Amino acid sequence: MLEVKNLHVRIKSMRGEVHAVRGIDLFISKGEIVGLVGESGCGKTTAMLAICRLLSDNAIISADKIIAGETDITNPDENSLLQIRGSRIAYIFQDPQASLNPVLTIGDQITEGIMIKDKSLSRENADKRAVELMNKVKINNPEIWLGSYPHQLSGGMKQRVMIAIALSNSPDILIADEPTTSLDVTVQSEILKLLKDLNQSIGMSIVFITHDLSVAKNICGRIIVMYAGRIAEVGSTEKIVNCPHHPYTFKLWNSIPRIDRDIARLEIIPGNVPNPLDLPAGCKFHPRCGYMQEKCTAIEPEPVSFRDGSAAACYFPVNL
Ligand SMILES: Nc1ncnc2c1ncn2[C@@H]1O[C@H](COP(=O)(O)OP(=O)(O)OP(=O)(O)O)[C@@H](O)[C@H]1O
Ligand SMILES: [Mg+2]
Known about the structure:
By secondary structure, the protein is of the alpha/beta class. Helix content is about 30%, strand content about 20%. The protein has a domain at about 1-100 and about 170-220: 3-Layer(aba) Sandwich (Rossmann fold), CATH 3.40.50.
């Protein structure tokens, strides 16, 4: 469904050039839910926005290969972007509050994408389709909500509307950027269940971006862990949860409360995520890593594959 090789994103800012994504490879198969996990600022959003070419002009994007379905979008023109946006890849943005237009009704916002793609569709039929989509995302009494404005909706409802908009052109892949972060736990689990149901009923692949490994664990079949613009580790959820190999993944787990484990004290990962304008030499995690040796300070490690199917960019992987 989606294949990305060696994606780099450099963002020009007032303080200098931020190399936000530093050579990542992704492979998303049909029907799978993949978690893209990492601390704030590690480049999750930038990487996915770059693939969809939704970054502003100050971002320089380069890749050896980006293929969505059968469409090569490594160096896309406007036409191929129009083809893939909405129908191949749909994006739910990080903040539903800011992503909905406050002066347009919910119905208008859900139907906008459908009417752009099908210019012959009547208003009446577009509204029917909007009602169908609202039913799909489990909004009760959709006819009543069609004429409402975003401020009249709760946070969970807004997120459902965002999902309905994303589904409007039947995408093959849905990129859901922190879709549950601003919601309380009950609504959070309802949205997770909705995404899982949609994945199973329509076979849509999902890239689920989150900073929370425990949320990713509940919904994803595979997890990609990012650190400082690169992939630290990738593996099945079962392996990432029970047998992480990168010390960063290992430490992340030990810093999260888990009901399946009895530990007296949660660990803290010492230090902070490095400043992207002043990255350390070698492995970018080495200043915070308890397993660091001299080699780690010199050259950044490349990913190494293990027999259990995981891969980690580390000279001294754990749990082998
Ligand atoms: N427009 C911009 N100008 C300058 N730097 C930027 C810009 N957009 C992103 N960055 C930088 O790129 C890096 C990656 O940011 P990004 O938003 O992709 O991280 P993220 O993993 O999605 O974090 P979060 O979990 O907070 O959403 C950060 O260091 C950020 O400061
Ligand atoms: Mg983000």
